[in-house]
Amino acid sequence: MVSYLIDRMDGKGNAEPVLVGHKRRTPAPVTVLLLNLDITQLESGNYRLVVEVRNRYKELLSRKEVPFQRSNPYLHPETEALTSEVLQEEFVGKLSEKNLDYSLRALVPVAPEDQTDWLNQLIKGGSPDAKRLYLFSYWLKKNPNRPDIPYQAYMEVANALDGMFHSGLGYGFETDRGYVYLKYGRPDDMIREENDPAAPPYEIWVYNNFPATNQSNVRFIFYNPSLAPNDFQLLHSTARGELNNPQWEVQLYKNSPNEIDGNDPFGATQMQDNFGRQARKWFNDN
After folding, report:
1. CA torsion, points 164, 223, 196, 203, in degrees to nearest 10?
2. Are 92 and 86 in contact (CB under 8 A)?
3. How far is CA 52 from CA 42, 64, 66, 68, 265, in A?
4. Where are the alpha helices (DSSP H) in the chain?
5. How many other CB atoms are found less than 10 A from the CB of residue 144?
6. What is the pLDDT of residue 80?
7. Residue 259 to residue 117: CA distance in whole angstroms
8. Which residue from 253, 251, 255, 248 is spatially nearest to 283, judged by alpha carbons?
9. pLDDT tens column, 123-171
10. Residue 254: is it exposed, middle or buried by C-beta count within 10 angstroms (0-12/13-18/19+)?
11. How far apart, in Å, are the Cα atoms of 133 and each of 69, 91, 119, 159?
């Protein structure tokens, strides 16, 4: 049994375990054990890494200690400590005001709901220092040691979506498809239909697991009624909290008003089956 732990040292010789783990290994002349220990949440201070090897009778065969110091000044930062001088030394200090606005606009889909209005106001009229402070604080919560790493990874996705979904009205990640992608991640499956004779182009996105709402088999359908390049709008979704439109199929096939299923043109939710009309089947397909 290989045991590994990290102790926090208090300066008086006292040790407090903050991370403990064990691995069983088969006896051999040489056994290599590679581990990644996440210390992002360790506060600044003195620590030691301890590794012990014991036999099946729990007798100690070997033990080694390695002291180390941890510097983590941004783990629980005070807002007052994040001055403009400090921020200029971080990744946000290298961003132009245009790039700051771009980065903040990309954050809108994933920002806490109670901050969305404030974030939009910040983008429209906030000072560069205020924008840098918000952007840095947001990514600092994701990685207190290297906030630039999750920022760069996220912006790579945002940049790609900007190119994929750009429609001439705002950035690509601000379209309905870009918003959903940034907020919920890449769908497990996409169905695109451009040859339905009675409907404009549409896409169906499928999420097998949807942790945002603890659902499974979540569907989104986007359609392009204007036929303008990339002008896809969210028509309906089964995700809780998103647009729910029981009449989505009727709206999708509005150019065929005489083929509504039933006798209620105002309350109908389905269309009659017809050649090439696959939207309902694909959307409900499990």
Report:
1. 50
2. no
3. 22, 7, 12, 17, 75
4. 84-88, 97-107, 116-125, 128-142, 148-165, 176-184, 248-252, 279-284
5. 18
6. 52
7. 42
8. 248
9. 998 999 999 989 998 998 888 888 999 999 999 999 999 999 998 878 9
10. middle
11. 28, 11, 12, 22
Cα–Cα distance, 100 to 105 (Å, whole number) = 9
Cβ-based neighbours of 182, under 8 Å, separated by 6 or more: 106, 109, 110, 157, 158, 161, 173
* Side-chain half-sphere exposure of 244, counting CA atoms within 13 A: 6
Which amino acid, 21?
A: G
Residue 28 has pLDDT above 80, yes or no: yes
Q: In whole angstroms, how far apart are CA 286 and each of 206, 216, 244, 259, 282? A: 10, 11, 19, 26, 9
- As a whole number of Å, the CA-based R_g of the chain is 27
**Best CA proximity match to 101, nearest among 70, 139, 128, 141:** 128
CB 137, CB 78: distance < 8 Å:
no
Three-point CA angle 74, 78, 84, nearest 5°: 80
Polymer length of the chain? 286
Domain residue extents for the chain: 2-70, 79-163, 187-284
Structure tokens that stand for 227 in this block: 């036929």
The listed range with the strongest mean pLDDT (10-14, 35-39, 221-225) is: 221-225
Note the pLDDT tens digit of each residue in 170-226.
Answer: 899 999 999 999 999 999 999 999 988 889 999 999 999 999 999 999 999 999 999
Structure tokens at 92: 């946000």
| Structure token digits, residue 234 | 């969210």
Q: Could you tell me which residues are beta bridge partners of residue 53?
A: 2, 62
